[in-house]
Amino acid sequence: WDSAPFGDTDANEQPTGGLPRFTFNLRFPGQQYDRETGTNYNYYRDYEAGTGRYVQSDLVGLDGGPNTFAYAWLNPNSVDDQLGLGRKPSSEKPKRDGCGLTRPGKHAQTPIPVSGGHGAKPTAEEQELLNSMPCHRCGAEESGTKKGNMIGDHQPATSLCSPGTPQCFYPHCKRCSVTQGGHILQLLQGNIESE
Fold first, then answer.
1. Domain co-membership, 11 together with 62
2. Dihedral angle computed from the Cα positions of residues 153, 168, 128 and 142, in that order, rounded to the nearest 10 degrees
3. pLDDT digit string (tens) for 23-37?
4. What is the pLDDT of residues 116-136, one digit of tens each?
5. In whole angstroms, how far apart are CA 6 and each of 52, 75, 112, 163?
6. Cα separation of 14 and 116, whole Å?
7. What is the domain extent for residue 38?
8. Is residue 135 a contact partner of residue 172, using CB atoms and an 8 Å limit?
9. Sheet of strand 45-48, all strands in order from the earlier edge strand to the far edge
10. Percent of the chain predicted with pLDDT > 70
């Protein structure tokens, strides 16, 4: 059964042609599918898989996070919420950051020192240098952005270092930039730990 990340894929209730159909109502941990409402029942709230969120606001208010309708902090692969009352890590120990998305990639060429200060956007000259190199992560020559500019990837990542820490730019394509952003969010939420 190939499930979508937020659980909106129905279970195959007849995986082989010769056996009778069966009812399979289990979904994410602690959830039972309710055919009448089309939602997944978590003890305190109902989850709507098509939108990837709860139907009711969190009973604990903002103590459960800034988005009171979010399921498992938008990370159902690493976090579960069996009762519908907030997040709980799926495992005791966070996963290791073994993919190296917070370091220069295998296609990294010349680092470009950030001249505008901590977390600054690239200057016109820095942008020209970024555009002359491939994505440091995947090697793509095209950025995938509307303007065609490579994205300046701050190394070390701005949200993972103190103000005043020297940073360099490496060119990122849009796809790798989005992937790294999600990875850093998981680091900041404590779902994985850096090496």
1. yes
2. -30
3. 777 777 778 888 888
4. 888 899 999 999 999 999 999
5. 5, 9, 39, 36
6. 60
7. 1-92
8. yes
9. 32-34, 39-42, 45-48, 53-54
10. 76
